[in-house]
Design goal:
6-stranded antiparallel beta sheet; 7-stranded antiparallel beta sheet; globular; 9 helices; alpha+beta
Length: 285
């Protein structure tokens, strides 16, 4: 379906994780080991935050990630403390720039690996559930972008995890009204520039893979000779669709139906439980 990475911590060049690891995101574009598709060549995107600017930068292209020289150049020269990258394998919607992740609205970035099953059956109803104040922001035709705008509609700014729980509840309710038994398959990454959230969930309880890097102390204890790991701080964290290396102890699987909050200080893990609507989508103002 897709692959994505996200970084939170000290400023680094995305090149470190997009190109320089043994199983980097660019390598996964051609040789994914844990994804549904081995090749993820239907476009890519990189979104990043710069200190002092709440609106994230973004670069997207329909080119395969491995063949884009501009991405390679940007990835070396950007220094960012928080960024998300995504490589796309389409589930049926067109290969076009507006369908490439990350999706952006204001300070928010959003990436998705997965599918809203049989999206075409209930796409119109989901679109009609988006607050008119946000509707014009939808530029593409993917299920992922609609899910993002549903979350914005349902309170992403004030209650990020709760808003996504409500959005997924809406999708499940409407999808099942149309005879879709398991409407949602997803791992999500999203950020407002201050925190990074990741969610692993599927309606059938068999979600796509998602991992987070081990804490600094664990990594440095396991690999004391590695010079790069000696530079890690307590705040540094990587979230990935699949591990960037085969080093034992480096990667911790995010449990099924879990939301992870990466932030300054202690990270948070909480159960992710979709909230079904009573009758219809209630727009929060």
């Amino acid at each position: 379906m897709c692959r994505w990475n996200a970084w939170f911590g000290q400023p680094i060049a995305p090149d470190e994780l997009l190109y320089q690891t043994a199983h980097s995101l660019i390598d996964q574009a051609l040789h994914s080991r844990l994804g549904v598709e081995t090749t993820n060549g239907d476009g890519f995107g990189l979104g990043w935050y710069s200190p002092g600017n709440p609106i994230p930068g973004r670069y997207r292209s329909v080119s395969p990630a491995w063949s884009d020289p501009n991405l390679r150049d940007l990835a070396v020269h950007i220094q960012s403390p928080l960024w998300l990258a995504h490589i796309r394998a389409t589930t049926g919607t067109p290969v076009q720039q507006t369908n490439c992740h990350p999706f952006r609205h204001g300070r928010w970035l959003f990436v998705h690996n997965g599918i809203l099953t049989d999206f075409h059956l209930y796409r119109r109803e989901l679109l009609m559930s988006v607050d008119p104040a946000y509707f014009d922001g939808i530029a593409g035709s993917t299920d992922s972008e609609v899910l993002f705008y549903l979350a914005l509609t349902l309170g992403l700014d004030s209650d990020p995890v709760g808003a996504v729980e409500r959005a997924v509840g809406v999708v499940e309710a409407i999808g099942r009204d149309h005879g879709v038994e398991h409407p949602v398959q997803m791992t999500l990454g999203f950020s407002n520039g201050e925190r990074l959230w990741a969610v692993r969930y599927s309606s059938e309880g068999r979600s796509r893979t998602l991992y987070v890097s081990a804490d600094r102390a664990t990594i440095q204890q396991l690999y004391p000779e590695t010079e790069r790991y000696a530079l890690l701080t307590d705040e540094d964290r990587v979230i990935v669709s699949e591990p960037l290396s085969d080093l034992p102890g480096m990667w911790v699987e995010v449990p099924e139906a879990t939301a992870l909050v990466v932030q300054r200080g202690a990270d948070e893990h909480r159960a992710f439980t979709p909230q079904a609507p009573e009758r219809q989508v209630h727009v929060l103002h």
